[in-house]
Each structure stands twice: as structure tokens, then as C-alpha cells.
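Incident log, structure service

09:12 report received: a user says their structure output differs between two submissions of the same chain.
09:20 pulled the input from the user's history:
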Amino acid sequence: MKVTTPLVLIFFLFFQSINAQEPDLKIPKRIYTTKSIGQAKAPVIDGIIDDASWDLVEWNSDYTEYSPDENTAPSQETKFKIVYDQKHLYIGIRAIDKAADSIVKRLSRRDGFEGDWVEINIDSYHDLRTAFSFTMTAAGVKGDELASDNGNNWDESWNPIWFAKTSVDDEGYSVEMKIPLSQLRFGKSKEQIWGLQLQRYFFRKNERSLWQRVPRDAPGWISEFGELHGLIDLEPQKQLEIQPFGLAKLDTYPKEDGNPFRDGSDFKLNGGLDAKIGITNDLTLDLTVNPDFGQVEADPAAIALDGFEIFFNEQRPFFVENNNIFNYQISNSEAGDTFGSDNLFFSRRIGRSPQGYPDTEDGEFVNQPNNTSILGAAKFSGKTKNGWSIGILESITANEYATIDNNGNRREELVEPLTNYFLGRLQKDFNERNTFVGGIFTATNRNLTDNLQFLHKSAYTGGLDFKHQWSDRAWYVGGNVVFSRVEGSKEAIQSTQESLRHLFGRVDATHLEVDPNKTSLTGTGGNIQIGKQAKGHWRFESGFTWRSPELELNDMGFQRQADDLRHYTWVGYRTLKPFSVFRQLGLNYNHWSAWDFESNHNLMQFNTNSWAQFKNNWRANLGITYLPTNQSTVQLRGGPRIKNSQILSYFSRLGTDDRKKVSFSLRSNGGKTFDDSFSYFSLGVGVSYQPTNALQVSIFPQYRINDDKLQFVDNIESNNQTNYVNGTIAQRTLSMSMRLNYTINPNLTIQYYGEPFISRGRYSEFKTVVSPQANSFKDRIQLFNDNQISFDTNDDSYLIDSNTDGTTDYQFGNPDFSYVQFRSNLVMRWEYIPGSEVFLVWSQGVSGNADPNYKLFKGLDNQILGEKKDNTFLIKVTYRFML
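09:34 re-ran on a clean worker, output below:
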């Protein structure tokens, strides 16, 4: 801290001087004035802008290029008209193209944004932070997104009902849109003033042009919009939509002799309901009853050897939509590498896999549920015109029971209790939308029985956050504080104290101690940062984040580790105009330092990286990281803090022009310690092929090498001492993701995803850690010699005779592994009327363990090609009523 604090002060003064030298350029706001069509006939949405009602307003044009060369004339002219009635907003856009036969009309499913397209963004709140985006491609594919955080967050899961058509002629293409006002959010006033932006993407030149100019060094997107005037006496439209669904599902799998739960197939019928109810025009209630997410793509395969939970993104539509309102990241930063996935709300906790498992005897079979049933969930969310953002989520998951069969006699055992999840989020804009303050509160309450006392009975988290911007939003200061409290049995709280996230029993931690009598834990965390985000080539951010040892968020949130205090700084430079061979170029510098609450300095890390887009539309990234200080408090799983060797690492990526029919990408990263105790390398090659406008195929094979001479195996008590057993691992991982997208028409698509995956680890050179703080790696460990270690083939375990007296002191199992997985989804989606869909799904998968002695391809062959697979066939039908 003594070194980095002066650095932060120097950077702050440096950028203040830069800011003073930069011109304060004010871009005038453009205004478009619309008119009501009154009693005239509404435009027919056919893609041809020839209805009489369009003549009520004049064309507006004069777009400005945004990229690659900002504030220049675009290659092609674009113009538009906007009219309205009491129920709808109508937009007509004319995209002139001097070579109309070259317009690119690539097909994709909704939100694909392929080929040429035009777009309108509407800030109907006029809060300068939130916008509704509607996109239409020349091929007739719709896209819609809800933008928030001044354009830093775009939610593609938002799927409003609206209508649009495209037509192509000799002079270009035309788009007509009809947007129901019920799909927008606005307050009640005599005349509405909305933020407005229109954008065109000209595919052949990879060029974007805008109606309202936005400089490349602007502080955001939505705050820079022009304005839409002329909306008189609009009545807010309350939204009411109901979407029931029906589902038929057949699971087939290899039959297991003697197992009554694995007879080869299962069939079920199911149904549920989703609804959107406009409480006011600003605030919406979303409901789901007995939801099913069978059409959602499977998570990618992954394996972790560090003991921590792997973070997977949410994919279920109910939880993804409007997630920006509920999001509460603790340490979000431009520098990254600050536990960026830590969040008070991690929606995948709702409907998670059951956390318990029944007690069984030999010969018993178990039918364990894969997921917890969500009985129902509700979200109340929105934003009022006076700047209040509100989000409330309530969900109840069911008691889940495992069924145990003992020669035909069956019993049930609770493996996940009835649980209530609650979240409330509130935020207020003021000071002309330059300052935001907010708060959040979550509660998890479980109805526990005796066999589930290892779970928390209740868990509560909360926080306060703020952000203040000044100098036309170029500068900002922000932060948050959070707290957590978990309550439960002595068993549950002791388990939390001893978990890998906390390790209160770590042998050399004088500030931590396991208290077996505790029935609650209360912790805190937070983040504070200052930065420059606009005006000129230079930007920066510096901050400090912390997690107290007692902080525990994982009942309803996601948290990787506690007992951490961390400083970070990022400085970035980027070009604003094309030059030489570059369309755009960026350079970055980052550094991080971390301590625990005992003031041990555990991390010092430096990084520099660059990114570039070339004039031929190739892209490249390159970064180098130096880690001179790397102390781990978790590597020995409760053992002493251990020093790791200095390491130098890199990452790189090269991608060709992804607009071409064939494009390639090459990704690589690797690193090596100076003493050769650890090294890794990965290489991935991506190929994408688009033979027609309707078909796209891509593959991405990836190979990773991980060689670590200090891979944890086990902590074993023997002769009144703990032996911290580690080994040298040679881990090899091979995977290949495959995707196929075939678009028959904008409303009928077929998508395939598949990924074979194998990760094999072979261990050798077993050792114990004897001096964890020694400067030399060789002095930190003691290798077992041939007289001390032997292998028992019958028991598949290693026997250790430490003092070579002929008596085994302790033993541990063979840690070699070869984990294989294959997952695939084939989905046909048909939107037969706007908002109503049919899904036909075929999911296939298999996972298991291959012989670690096999080579990778033989392991894949034996476990994937040589094994019968689990299959799921699903038909899901939804119908969306607009009332």
C-alpha cells in the first residue's frame, strides 16, 4: 500500500492536467418533431413507405459516421420519418444504397444482427441512462434490446411484441416499424420529450453512421442522444400479457440392470405460465408459475483443480431479462481481476441442484433430482420518470426428495428444503442524472429438517452504492458497501468457517479461529473507485475493494473468496481516428496488490496489453503479465500460507474479418515461472464458414497444457503432524465446440451446439510442503524417495513410509483422472405468431471417467463414441396473449 498510494496520486494529478488541456466540445442536440396521424389511416406495415399518413412529416437525414472515421460523411445516405397515434409509434427508414444488388441480406434468428441493418433507440424515460432498441436487418430479421447503465449493458433477452417489414428496391432498402406504446415506458405529461438515436450499419464497409453525432470519446451512449418532440397527449399504456406453455418430454438412457430408476426411458407432460402485468406504465410485474427451461443451451464443459466453484452465466430467460436492475457486482472495474464475478444476486442459486444426498446402504438405488423445482417467481421492476429504479424479486422453490429403493421397498428423503428467495433493489438518479445512489437487500430462508442442518437456515445480504459524475460525465467517483449475515446450526456455521472461501482454521492465521459454538456469521465488503471515462485519448480508474473474513454471499449470490483487501489501477489510451494500418488501437496498463486481514502482502501483479482493429478489419490482442509476489492462503486447503514462484505470462488473439464467408481466429495464452515449477499453455483455433445467407457453421478446437509441480493432493494427519501432500501434475485438456445455425426464415431457425471435452491429469513426484515461505521452490518441498513411497495396485493407492521403518505411516488414493463429457443441443424454433413459439429440442450427452493411461483421443473414443448416450426429446409450445 505504501508504494501504490503515491502512484495513484501521481496518476490523478496527471489526468487532471490532461483534462484541463482538452477542449470542452459541446455537441448540439438534434431535435426531431413528430406528428400525430389523428384520424388518418395508420400506415400499413409492408416495408413500402407510401401511405398518406407518412406525408404528415418531412424526411430527416444528415447522418454522421461513427466508425471507423467519426464525424465524417457516411458512404450512403439514410433518412427517416416518425409518426404516431394513441397506441403505436411508426418509424419509416430509407437506407439508400448506390449498389443495391450488393446489399447483404444474411439471415439469423432474432437478435442476430447479421448483414445490413438499421436501428432506432428510444429513451422514453428520458433519464439519459436507459433506452429501448429496435433493429431491423435488410433480410427482415428483428432485433430488440433493453439498454441500461448509459449503454454499458444491453439485454438481448428482452423480447417485446412489435411489427416490422423490409423491402429492397433498385435504390436501397426500406424499413417500416410499428411499436406498440405498451412496450415502452414513459410518464404522464402533456408533451413527451424522449431521447432519440438512429443508427445504420453498412455491411460492405463495416461502417456505422448515426443521426445524432456521438464522439468516440463520449462518456456513454444514451446520455448523448438527440431528442424526439411532438408527442402530445399520449396516454401511458399498461401492459398485460399472458403466455401459457405446454411441454412433452421423453428421456432415454442406457438401462442399468437391477436399477428400477434406470429402466431406459422416462416420459412426462408439464405445463406452466408466464405473465407480464403493467401495474403502471413505468412498473411491470413479471410472473412465472412452474417454469421449464428445457430449451436452454447446456453449460460448456469445465473442470477446476483449485477447489472453487466454477461460475456459469445465467441463460434462463425469466432471470436474464431485466437482470441489469437486480445486478449488484461488488468490485466491477476496468482493471478486472478483482473477483469480478462476485455479486449479491446470482440467479442460478434459484432452482439449483439439490445440496443434500440421502444416506444409503449397500445394494440400494437412488433417484436424485437434477434440479430443484421452482414453484413460482415474480419480478416487480421498472423505472419512474422522476428517476427511481425499482426491482423486487420473490421466488419459492419446492421441497425436493430423493427416492431410495431397497429390493422394491421405497422411501423418500429430503435433499433440498422448501426455500424462499427475496431481493429488493432501489436506485435514485438526481443532480441532472449525474449522481446515482441506491441500495439492495436479499433474504434466503429455508424450512430445514434434521438431515439438512448443514445448510444455513437463513441468509441476509445488503448494500449501499453510489456514483457521482462531473465535467460532462468525463470524471466519476463511485463505490459500494455490503454486509452479510448467515444463521443456522452450529454444524452449518462451523462448516462455513472451515470452507475454502474462509478457512478460519488455517494453521498460521492468527486473526482467524474456528468457533464451534457460533450459530451466525456477519461480514462486510465493498469497493471505492475514481476514474476518467471520456474526453480525449486517455482514461483511467483506480480503486480499492475488500472482503472481510466473515463475508458470505453464496446462498443467493456468488463469492469466490473472503479475507481479502485489494488495490487496482488501470490506465488506457485509445485512438479516436484511423491512422496508418489501424482503424482503432488501444494500449492499457494495469496493476493489482492484495493483502489479507492480517496485513500479509499476498499479491503484486503488473499487466500491459494492447488491442487493435486494422483497416482490413482483422483484429488482434496481446497482453503480458508479471507476477512478482504470489502468496496463496488457500492452496494447502487450511494449511499455512505458501509462497509461489514469480511468473511471466501472456495472452494473444488474432482474428480475420468476420464478415467474410470464411473467417479464422487464433487464441493462445501461456505462462512459466522463473524456476520451472509451473507452466501452462493453451491454443485455440476457430473457423467460421457461411456458405449461404441462411447457413453458418463454426468450430473451435482448443488444447491446454498444465504442468504444475505443486498440485494439491491431500492433507493427512500422521504421527501428530499434518502432511501437506502435493504432486507434479501433467494435465492435458482437449475440447471442441461446434455450432450450426440454419435460418429458414426470420421466424423459423435450426440451431445445433455440441462439445466433446476431455481433461486428463497424471500425477508423479509426490512430496510434502515443509517450508512454505522458503525463497527457493526446492526448499519449500520434500520429495518422497523410492524407499518412502510405494503403490498398492489392489487398493489403487499410494503408501507412505516417512521414516523408512517398514511400517506404513499413511496412504492416499491415486489422484490420476481422465474426465470426459459430451453435450449437444439441436433446437428448432418457430415463432408462428409474434411472441408465440414452438420449440423442438433434441439434447444428447454423456459424461464419465476414462482410463488416465489412455491417450486423449482414445479416452474420447471410449467414453463418447463407445458409450450409449442420454437423450432428451422435447416439444414446448407457448402462446402469448396480449390483453
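09:41 both user submissions now match this output. Likely a transient worker issue. Closing.
09:42 reviewer note: Residues 1-23 have pLDDT under 50 and may be disordered. The chain is about 5% helix and 50% strand.
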